[in-house]
Design goal:
This protein has 367 residues and is of the alpha/beta class. The protein has 11 helices and 12 strands.
Length: 367
């Protein structure tokens, strides 16, 4: 009898041990790559530094709005098979990390944000981008991608970007922008790898829209984000974020802020001294504040803004940024508007353009 009880207890013990082992293996098996711990960034003087006080120069690329990337077929009747961003998202993040990038800027069009519904848009698209950036050791700039003046003029031709999803892509008013940042900063404000770019390109083609006109709105958006997060904020200026010359007269009121510039070949008129213009429009400010050029680039087949060359614009401009240790994100990784020319990737979503190869080589070198 005792022998039978001993056998039963022995078998039971073995089954318990095996069960625990199987359960443990099941529970601890990771379902995705471990997250890389990134140091939270902050502004110190005219530099961006990490938690150890080491200067960090951000360099990377701009990713397209994920709703646009998912719903545009991108073949434009040229016979190239459809490519959808969401199918390649993880691959894209890994690729730009391998190129040497440490940051990605994500465009969020207010029109698509409203179309999908704010919280649903973030849960469907942006959550994954923030997670993938962190898993790949990348910082991510969340950009409220507006071209225009709040409640007034805006870049209306882009409304036809996706005929099956009609929306005012770039339109916003101040209340919409405040509501956006209330939601977005609450959701991502404690993520160490997130930076917030308040407003892509303040502009008004119908009037002289100045820093004095724009600054109150910019400060309001900064204050809105600050209610929810201590992360770095990127502050923009007028003339499509191409002019910071009046900032010293009345800078933004925030101690953890960098200024944004967007500089393309079209910013310089033929015959002008481009270095002198860069100095006047944004470069001079790098002595006082951190600057991040969140859009720059060229395409030989581009429009009046982006058309340029490697020797005439690409090399001189990057040399200028390198000399001043200015951070940057190159525009744009994903093929979008054909009229701008393909910037970093050809329409096959894989092959690097001349500009793409130039950016890749630049990222491979020490910042």
């Amino acid at each position: 009898m005792l022998k039978r009880i001993f056998i039963i207890l022995f078998i039971t013990a073995i089954l318990i041990v095996v069960g625990v082992f199987i359960a443990t293996k099941t529970i601890t098996r990771p379902s995705f790559s471990p997250t890389i711990t990134l140091s939270k960034l902050h502004v110190s003087g005219n530099h961006i530094v990490n938690e150890d006080g080491e200067m960090i120069r951000l360099r990377g690329v701009v990713f397209g709005d994920p709703f646009l990337m998912e719903h545009d077929d991108f073949d434009h009747d040229d016979g190239v098979p459809d490519h959808h961003f969401t199918e390649k998202t993880a691959e894209d993040f890994a690729r730009v990390k391998a190129m040497g990038a440490n940051v990605v800027r994500l465009m969020i069009y207010p029109g698509f944000y409203r179309l999908v519904g704010g919280d649903k848009y973030l849960a469907t698209y942006v959550d994954r981008e923030v997670d993938l950036a962190e898993q790949n050791g990348l910082y991510i700039i969340l950009d409220y991608h507006v071209i225009g003046r709040p409640g007034g003029w805006y870049d209306a031709p882009s409304d036809g970007t996706l005929p099956d999803y009609p929306t005012k892509v770039h339109y916003t008013d101040t209340a919409m922008a405040v509501a956006f940042w209330d939601t977005v900063a609450t959701r991502y404000g404690q993520r160490k790898n997130v930076l917030f770019e308040i407003y892509n390109e303040p502009a008004d083609d119908t009037t002289n829209y100045t820093w004095a006109d724009w600054r109150p709105t910019g400060q309001l958006l900064i204050d809105t984000i600050r209610k929810h997060s201590s992360n770095i904020i990127l502050g923009s200026g007028p003339n499509y974020s191409g002019d910071l010359s009046d900032v010293p007269k009345n800078p933004y009121n925030d101690s953890n802020l960098a200024y944004v510039a967007h500089i393309y070949p079209g910013n310089v008129q033929s015959g002008d001294d481009q270095v002198a213009l860069w100095d006047k429009s944004f470069g001079f400010l790098a002595k006082t504040y951190p600057i991040i050029v969140t859009e720059w680039g060229y395409s030989p087949n581009g429009d009046e803004t982006t058309k340029g060359t490697l020797e005439g614009y690409g090399k001189p401009f990057l040399n200028y940024l390198d000399q001043k240790k200015i951070s940057w994100t190159a525009f744009a990784y994903h093929p979008m508007d054909p009229s701008q020319g393909q910037m970093l990737l050809e329409s096959d979503f894989t092959t690097l353009t001349q500009f793409g190869e130039f950016v890749k080589k630049s990222l491979e070198t020490k910042p």
